[in-house]
Structure formats: C-alpha cells, structure tokens
Amino acid sequence: MKAMLAVFAALLWLTSFSHADEVRFASVELPPYAGEQLPGGGVTTSIVREAFRSQGIATRVNFYPWLRALALTQHPSAGISGFFPAYQCQPEEGLIASSQLGISVTGFAQRKSHPIEWQSLADLTPYRIGVVSGYVNEAEFDRWLNEGKLTSEPVNFDKNNIRKLLVGRVDAIVIDRFLLEYLFSSDPELAGRRDEVQFNSKPLNQRGLFVCFDDTPQGHELKRQLDSGLEAIDTLSIVEKYIQ
Fold this sequence. Notes:
Helices cover 37% and strands 23% of the residues. It has 9 helices and 10 strands. It has helices at 2-17, 43-53, 66-73, 139-146, 158-166, 177-186, 188-191, 217-232, 235-242, and strands at 23-27, 59-63, 82-86, 95-97, 102-111, 128-132, 151-155, 172-176, 197-199, 205-214. Strands 1, 2, 3, 4, 5, 6, 7, 8, 9 and 10 form a 10-stranded mixed β-sheet that branches. Helix 2 (43-53) packs across helix 8 (217-232). The chain is globular, with a radius of gyration of 21 Å. Keywords: Signal.
C-alpha cells in the first residue's frame, strides 16, 4: 500500500510539474562556483541551469547562508527543490545527491621562481603558508595549523593571499585551483601577473560538487532530470568560457 501511495504521489507531482513555470533552488556564496553577483550566478549555477534547460525545465536560484539553504530544502512548504553546490548530501538528513557537477581541487599556489616541494605535511614546516581565515581546507592540514605545527599567515580574502604571494611575503597559499584561475582572469589588478604563479602539482584535497535533493518522489524525479541534462550538455565548455 505504501509503495502504491508513493507511486501515486510521484505521478500527481509530475503532472503538476509539467505545467510549472520553474523549479526553485537554494545556493550559497562560493565563488566562482556560485554567487549572487557572479556572471550567471557562478559556474555551477550556469551548469545546473543549462542541464535543466536541455530537459525543457526553467530554474530560479536564490542565495542564502549555508544552514538556511539546507533547511529550506528539507521543508517542502518552502518551495525549494534542492541546494548546491554541496560537497556531499547526507542520507541521514533525508538528502540524495545528483551526478557530479564538477570537482573542487584545493592545493598550493606558488611563485614559479620559488616552487615548494612536499609529499607529506612535515615537508611544509619550512614554509610560510597563506590561508584564508575560517576556510575548511583538509582535516589533517587544518589540525596541523591549529596545533601550530605549520607557519601560517591568515587573511580574510583569497585575493589578499595572492597579493602576498606575488610580493614574496608567503611561500605558498592554499586556494581552490579554479578560483585561482578565475581571479587571475577576472581581476584587472592580477590579470597581468598570471605567468608568475603556478598551482603545485600535488593537491591538498579534492571534493566533488553536487546538487542535494530531498529524498522524496519529487526529489528523485528532479535528480533524474538533472542527471540526464548533465549528460546532454558540454560542461567543460561552460567552465572554459567562465575563465576566458
């Protein structure tokens, strides 16, 4: 009986969904992946919109603090169908994950003239490392920072870190690889100095980016539509256009 009711609910929702003007999502400020003031709302927002558009579905994205975005997704009365970008979607919180939108690679940017060499965290002890206050980088690395095992220089913004790196006040900075490329391509102050900096070949952390949907018949159908859309579009071209 429960299975029949679930199927009926899904069919009822799909009938109303086919006449809906748009599907609403919650997102958070995570440049350049998502942001209210970014072109297209950020690169993952652009990917989500294009994927749904390929399935004939319009979307609307509103930006909230992280916990608010999560709460809205879990309350159907809010009219929010999902949130992104998320590193993971917890089943115990009643969430399911889409196919992967992309990968966030966190690592070290360094001056080409003074590259750092490391294989373990202990190899980083001779270096002065720029970090952004409050960022979650990688669990063991963050623990070493908090315990004072590594020499760090905290700042409030990634751009400030890049400035310090360019003038040699730090040996390396922790940054998302795509964010590094985006800042050099979009910020006039930095654009002419891209050739001075490179991303270290050994990443610190890699995390997938997903859309989280509510674990309901509606959520599963939207996940199916998005996953089909992601297969139908060229996500790489969207990313490349974003950093040109």
